[in-house]
Write a structure and sequence with these properties.
452 residues, 33% helix, alpha/beta, 23% strand, single chain, seven-stranded mixed β-sheet
Length: 452
């Protein structure tokens, strides 16, 4: 079978392409934006990529056109597909019908931490010999890929609340029918498709409705938005993460790189690992809970996490020049930005300065939905460099004025690089945050630092 994927270089669709290729399908795809690590993975798998959306790759017609959720009416390839009556489906629907049947699906949903927690869970299952399949919106360092078929029954999927396709406005995750679900947290986001938090909660409850009674839902003890979702109706046992819950962390060091794991009131073992940040402590507990549901003894899960190597673009060290370290992180929501900066600050243990470089790239950020909370999320940084392209829909003054003496903005990436490098000195940490390629700023920073 030949499938052609429109929008193949998105994190989800690229992973789906790898799965389809592993199943023996002929896979081709089109995309307008191509950048690593996804483009590297696809090329390595021998998948033929077409730049842009010229309809030519759809002639002769593939068996299926799989349409990414970034595609919309008016796209030349979409219009060609519809005019000629080609068979088409969405990525989540294709995953549900071709990959997930007869699998024990473990889904990780929430506003923040999906990629990291899903990566931790897949790592635990793999480290314990269960060889799970997975589809994750990032590249776990230990796997080097974002998706694989693995062996039945287990399959870990990052369960995104974003809509499915232009012809299916339900959240992607309603297609997956998981047996084990982590609901990490829930805040308002994706203002381009959701009117308010209640609209997102409704989609999360659609997910809850699909979990069987002998499944498991894992949630934090302190998230009222998730509590409201479960109050709409829940037919599945729930395990809680955090103070007063089934799973707790005690005696943690300040940056979160070591803590005791408490399960059902019993101390199991101490986790000492390479990850930092309070958010990763919670992510670890959730992953351990899900792994236990799949049959992994907790102590073995903790030992596995001790060997977890992290995820690309999540506090990934991209290089060090003359004592200045450059990190990359995917944070693009004020809550995630604050948590990432706090973890980085704690890990620095009082040495050097923390220079934050932010691209407000997500749809919600570009619309200015989070502009009033952005300054507070950046407060822990010593210096803030905000990249504000000319088409940004809001004035950065609301952030700059709230961070007097520490924040500045530039409308040009080269100017941003120059400003950051002029400020940096040995011992500093430069933390770049964006959910996109950011114009290759990481390499540009390292190159510029080398010239100083």
């Amino acid at each position: 079978m030949h499938i052609h994927i429109l929008g193949i270089c998105g994190t989800f669709m690229g992973g789906l392409a790898l799965l389809a290729r592993a199943m023996g399908y002929e896979v081709t795809g089109s995309d307008a934006g191509v950048y690593p690590p996804m483009s590297t993975q696809l090329e390595a798998a021998g998948i033929v990529l077409h730049e842009g959306y010229d309809p030519a790759p759809l002639d002769p017609a593939p068996d299926w056109v799989v349409v990414g959720n970034a595609m919309s009416r008016g796209n030349p390839a979409v219009e060609y597909m519809l005019d000629r009556g080609l068979a088409y489906t969405s990525g989540p629907q294709f995953l549900a019908e071709h990959v997930l049947p007869n699998r024990w699906v473990l889904a990780v949903a929430g506003t923040h931490g999906k990629t990291t927690t899903a990566s931790m869970l897949a790592h635990i299952l793999d480290d314990c010999g269960l060889s799970p399949g997975f589809l994750i919106g990032g590249v776990a360092q230990g796997f080097g890929i974002s998706a694989r078929l693995g062996k039945a029954p287990f399959f870990v999927v990052e369960a995104d609340e974003y809509d499915t396709a232009f012809f299916d406005k339900r959240s992607k995750f309603v297609h997956y029918r998981p047996r084990t679900v982590i609901l990490n947290n829930l805040e308002f986001d994706h203002a381009d498709i959701f009117d308010d938090l209640a609209a997102i909660q409704r989609q999360f409850h659609h997910l809850v409705r699909t979990v069987p009674g002998n499944g498991l839902i894992i949630t934090p003890t302190d998230d009222s938005a998730i509590d409201e979702v479960l109050a709409m109706g829940c037919w599945t046992p729930v395990e809680r993460i955090g103070e007063g819950g089934c799973w707790q962390a005690t005696d943690r060091v300040a940056d979160g790189h070591a803590f005791n794991v408490i399960c059902e009131g019993r101390h199991v073992a101490r986790l000492d690992w390479t990850q930092t940040g309070e958010h990763n402590v919670s992510n670890a507990l959730a992953a351990l809970a899900a792994a236990r549901h799949a049959g992994v003894p907790v102590a073995e899960g903790i030992a596995a996490l001790g060997r977890f190597q992290g995820v690309k673009r999540r506090m990934e060290l991209r290089g060090e020049v003359a004592g200045v370290k450059v990190y990359d992180d995917f944070a693009h929501h004020p809550t995630a930005i604050a948590s990432t900066l706090q973890g980085a600050r704690a890990a620095m243990n009082g040495a050097g300065r923390l220079l934050a470089v932010l691209e407000p790239r997500s749809n919600s950020m570009r619309m200015g939905v989070h502009r009033d909370s952005l300054a507070a999320s950046l407060q822990v940084a010593d210096k803030v460099f905000l990249y504000t392209p000319a088409d940004l829909a809001w004035s950065p003054a609301v952030v700059i004025d709230a961070l007097p003496g520490k924040a500045a903005h530039r409308q040009d990436i080269e100017q941003t690089v120059a400003a950051v490098v002029a400020e940096a000195r040995p011992g500093d940490v430069i933390l770049v945050m964006s959910n996109g390629g950011f114009g290759g700023i990481h390499e540009k920073l390292l190159a510029a630092l080398n010239k100083v």
